[in-house]
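Bump. Still looking for Alpha/beta hydrolase structure tokens.
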Amino acid sequence: MPFATAEDGTQIFYKDWGSGQPVLFSHGWPLTADAWDPQMKLMVDNGFRAIAHDRRGGGRSGQPWDGNNLDTYADDLAAVIETEDLHDVILVGHSTGGGEVTRYIGRHGTARVAKLVLLGAIPPLMLKTEANPEGLPIEVFDEIRQGVLTDRSQYYKDLSAPFYGANREGSTVSQGTRDEFWLWSMTVGIKGAYDCIKAFSETDTTEDLKKVDVPTLIVHGDDDQIVPIVSAGAKSSKIVKGAQYKVYEGAPHGLAMVPKYAEIFNKDLLEFARS
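Sorry for the wait, here they are.
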């Protein structure tokens, strides 16, 4: 299995499929690269090279005590890109992964980047502040921390409902998909999972978004119960110059794995990559 070595020596696992222009996928919390398998296969079947890594702290990557923050996540991503010497890469980030790829651009620039896709992504800031009144109060994230610390197995099973919109009438997400969510989440060490909550909720990526100078597609579901659209996609689309902004009516946070919405996203992703 391929690994990239981070600056602190942590081993970052990644899967590398196919050949052609590289598309690098970054997953959300608290999942792994496997969450992107359907989109990776789609891209390879259509002549692209697909790469996805397990964020430090979970999956097949190392579980260091330190470094569970957006700066280090971005540098880990850079390690993968540099290990494979990727150029003209299309970065695709979901949720926390959207913050990761955005911070990568903020710290490493776009010399190796061709395009950017943000899906249900956390930028610019999830936390409610005086300057960001649309955000979520700190108590929401404290509850997530408590859930991870006390009974993370049950917490992840419960979280899969709002994540995929299973708590909405007419939901088409399967129990199998919810079980996958639990399985992937349980591979994440409790320290990495806990620290990442602060990383995805309190990190302001506004200045990183301002540095984006490549074609960008921003996709967000208007029924996202995890990363509310008003504090995320709606704001990011106004910061990134020339960004394409698509709102999926009724779509949940994990829309890329929910029938109907996944089909729309896959079509939009492929069209954007080819454009």
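The two ends are 32 Å apart (CA to CA).

Edit: fixed formatting.
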